[in-house]
Amino acid sequence: MAFTAPETPRRELYPEIEPFASGWMETGDGNRIYYEECGNPQGRPVVVLHGGPGGAVNPGMRRYFDPSRWRVILFDQRGCGQSTPNAADTDLSDNTTWTLIEDIERLRERCGVDKWAVFGGSWGSTLSLAYAITHPERVSALLLRGIFLLRKSEVRWFYQEGASQLYPDAWERYLAPIPEAERNDLMGAYYRRLTGPDRAERERCAVAWSSWEGETVSVEGPSARPEKFADPAFALAFARIECWYFTNDGFFPSENWILENVGRIRHIPGWIAQGRFDVVTPMTSAWDLHRAWPEAKLDVIPDAGHASSEPGIIDSLVRATDWAAAL
After folding, report:
1. CA distance 199 to 4
2. Helix axis angle, 186-194 relative to 152-159, nearest 10°?
3. Distance (Å, whole) CA 293 – CA 289
4. Which of these is catalytic: 285, 306, 308, 316?
5. In what order do the strands lie in the sheet with 270-275?
6. What residues pair up with 282 in beta bridges, in sequence order?
7. CB neighbour list of residue 191: distance below 8 Å, 6 or more residues apart
8. Which domains does the chain have, with CATH numbers?
9. Is 309 tagged catalytic?
10. Distance between CA atoms of 260 and 293, rounded to whole angstroms?
């Protein structure tokens, strides 16, 4: 059953920490994946899967874990962050859900891990679930936030019609690069421009696409947009990879592939943190996952949206990692 975190006291992030190891992993197909390890080298292993797709890891992601108990392994998914080549200009044909899952397995083997917890939010929750369904024997726990099942209804809600009614001011800025005649299919219109030959147009559209997400992640709205979402250096890879995945339905064999296969992971301990007022990945997806996987804990945060930096989300995720460390 669903439950909510106690109002007080809320947990805060663990102190800042630096990696004890970092480097790049060759994938064998021209990609180099940046990764880092933090915390206790002898601790319980956990892999952190960032959002997007096309986002990147950041130092704050290290802080959801007790550094004395966890060996935290983070990496930038192919095409983004410090991984190379960057997706701002490169072909994306080798960047799919399944190649990312292969990368996760390569990293697990490289780090000498037999079984690890998997921590992911937003697109990171999608990838976490897909990885666990594909390799359930390698997953000791699933710690998820802002559930995204990559169904057509979810993509349409955020990029065509739905969230637009809650954030009409930000929506106007998202619409601005697209001529009115093409606005009946915004995903297609953005895809043509983000993969087109005009670098200036790619950059303008990438910033508009990325800023729309940045302006809606928090219950505070546009004023709380993280600066990186308007940075062309971040936005180009972020927008191009997201649009590529969403245009291709996440490369899943069927729209409900995750829910259809959730039986493969129901034995894995799970925690789902979901903001009640999440506009980017509305709660209906977390609820559908919870109904299919009732063994997992569903923590509905009553005063939160999508951002992992909101106090209620931080509280839930820190409690989740402490809970998983004791399993």
Report:
1. 46
2. 80
3. 6
4. 306
5. 2-3, 297-301, 270-275, 139-145, 116-121, 44-49, 70-75, 32-39, 21-26
6. none
7. 243, 244, 247
8. 2-152+251-325 (3.40.50.1820), 153-248 (no CATH)
9. no
10. 11
- Cα–Cα distance measured from residue 151 to residue 250, given in angstroms and rounded to the nearest whole number: 9
End-to-end alpha-carbon separation of the chain, Å?
Answer: 20
Distances (CA, A) of 125 to 50, 55, 169, 173, 187: 9, 13, 28, 28, 22
What does the pLDDT look like over 133-158, one tens digit per residue?
Answer: 999 999 999 999 999 999 999 999 99
Find the catalytic residue in 50, 76, 128, 278: 278
Q: How many CB atoms lie within 10 A of CB 166?
A: 12
Query: Catalytic annotation on 306?
Result: yes
Percent of the chain at pLDDT > 70 equals 98
C-alpha separations of 132 from 74, 116, 270, 319 in Å: 17, 10, 11, 21
**Is omega for the bond preceding 53 within 30 degrees of 0, making it cis?**
yes
In the set 83, 122, 211, 316, the catalytic residue is: 122
Instruction: Give pLDDT tens digits for 8-44.
Output: 799 999 999 999 999 999 999 999 999 999 999 999 9
User: What's the pTM value of the predicted model, to 2 decimals?
Assistant: 0.96
**Cis, peptide link before residue 19, omega less than 30° from 0:** no
| One-letter identity of residue 312 | G
Answer yes or no: are the C-beta atoms of 310 and 14 closer than 8 Å: no
Residue 82 CA to residue 76 CA, distance in Å, equals 6
